[in-house]
Amino acid sequence: xxxxxxxxxxxxxxxLFKVSRVGYYEYSKRKLSATxxxxxxxTIEIQRVFNQHKGNYGSPRIAQQLYDEGxxxxxxxxxxxxxxxxxxxxxxxxxxxxxTKKKGLAEYVRENLVKREFDSKAIDAIWVxxxxxxxxxxxxxxxxxxxxxxxxxxRCYKISSSMKKELVLEPLKxxxxxxxTIIHSDRGSQYTSYAYAELLEEKSILHSMSQPGTPVxxxxxESFHNSIKRELINPNRHKTKVEMQVLIDHYLQKYYIxxxxxxxxxxxxxxxxxxxxxxx
Length: 280
Description:
The protein has helices at residues 10-16, 21-28, 34-52, 59-68, 75-85, 166-174, 194-202, 219-233, 241-259, 269-278, and strands at residues 126-136, 139-148, 154-160, 182-185, 206-209. The chain is an alpha/beta fold. Strands 3-2-1-4-5 form a five-stranded mixed sheet, sandwiched between helices. Helix 3 (34-52) crosses helix 5.
């Protein structure tokens, strides 16, 4: 069967887009814009995932699966392309004016529970988290850190060459200490994923989120990442990824906790934690 510059035959595309073979062939000969080509490709992938799950997946879960497979997109684009292709998940109901809220990102956004109150003295009541990039001589790494708001001690972290959601999931999964009551993050895609919401629910952790475009809502972790970049990462950006990981491990596991005086407490984070424990 004649194919169209890819693994699918023309008949497959013709059926998918509900046009005749001749009509699709004429259409395919036209020069399409990069955006239209990308949307055409995404529509095929959306249809594949939709069929794979027998119509149970709506745009958020389809977008998440495509992201997990390495296909770059987002829930808004998937929703628009699904609407154009006439794909509706089972149980889908068309919204009626103001009676229902728009679905999409709003479903996964959480209230800001911290509200810039960064002076907590309750150990492990609140953790703050974020991701920062780490330039190296042979590429780039990403660092995801979870810090106890009371003591400023890094409780867990992960260094990776990828920004996929495992960057924020694995530190929590591997952690074997006491979990916090609240974790505060920004609204990055890693933190708004289904997998992250499910993990926090499993650990009985409340999720707090910053407002869009307001890094001051998460100022403590922003300040921490600025410090590690200034003191360790930037002076060593000529190091390889392997060398940089060794340096970061030492900084987070020993130097920052036990040796470095924190200007907020004028003590090391470890000694400050000991002082808090002494009065409880």
